[in-house]
């Protein structure tokens, strides 16, 4: 069965500190992994996807098939990174989301 | 602007009632997804349509139903509403199942 687990509901870090938002998945096939972000009063939007292997707003995420993880990382957190982050798994005809992690960057 | 339009923005209704939420996908997107977002559950996948046909079902209650019309807009029907149905309902559209989703602003439903 497809499942996405984000173990942390809330995460607070100080500005300039590294941040890692955890995501683990369960999927029998070849996964498509995404990170979506929802800033305050804005709609949910794509942050990055694993096949792009790109860095968006300083964030990166590496797919680790051995650990079935797709953690989101940024070396130096900024105040504007405060938002709700969702990890998502794309399977056949579907996109499953984790329950989300609310990141707060403390100035 | 992502181009996904949801109406209405807010809906307040009483228990036992029925409501219809509407979604217009981005131009060119054939796939429409419905999600329910509540405080405790996060984003819960409800149902997906592709070019008018149902493609996948998630945790959608029997009291809920949806359809996608020939012009590709979609409606989510919620009936026999209960207090626990109060949530934000999101629609998203995509070109195909591996394409990024583009979300609407959501419809906030309050059941009193």
Describe this structure in words.
The complex is a heterodimer of chains A (107) and B (112). With 107 residues, chain A is mainly beta. Helices cover 0% and strands 47% of the residues of chain A. Chain A has strands at residues 3-5, 10-14, 19-21, 24-26, 32-38, 45-49, 60-61, 72-74, 83-91, 94-97, 101-106. In chain A, the strands form 3 sheets. In chain A, strands 2, 5, 6, 9, 10 and 11 form a 6-stranded mixed β-sheet that branches. Chain B is mainly β and 112 residues long. In chain B, strands 2, 4, 5, 6, 9, 10 and 11 form a 7-stranded mixed β-sheet that branches. Chain B is globular. Chain A binds chain B through residues 32, 34, 36, 43-46, 49, 86, 90-100, and chain B through 2, 33, 35, 41-45, 48, 50, 55-56, 58, 90, 92, 94, 97-98, 100-106.
Q: Helix count of chain B? A: 0
Shape of chain B: globular
Helix content of chain A: under 10%
Low-confidence stretches of chain B: none
> Mind describing the biggest β-sheet of chain B?
7 strands, mixed
One letter per element, helices H and strands E, the order of chain B comes to EEEEEEEEEEE
Write the element-wise H/E pattern of chain A from the N-terminal end onward.
EEEEEEEEEEE
- How much of the residues of chain B is beta strand, in percent? over 45%
Euclidean distance between termini CA atoms of chain A: 40 Å
User: From the alpha-carbon coordinates, what is the Rg of chain A to the nearest angstrom?
Assistant: 13 Å
The main β sheet of chain A shows up as: 6 strands, mixed
| Overall mean pLDDT of chain A | 90
Query: Level of helix content of chain B?
Result: under 10%
User: How many strand elements of chain A?
Assistant: 11
Tell the overall outline of chain A.
globular
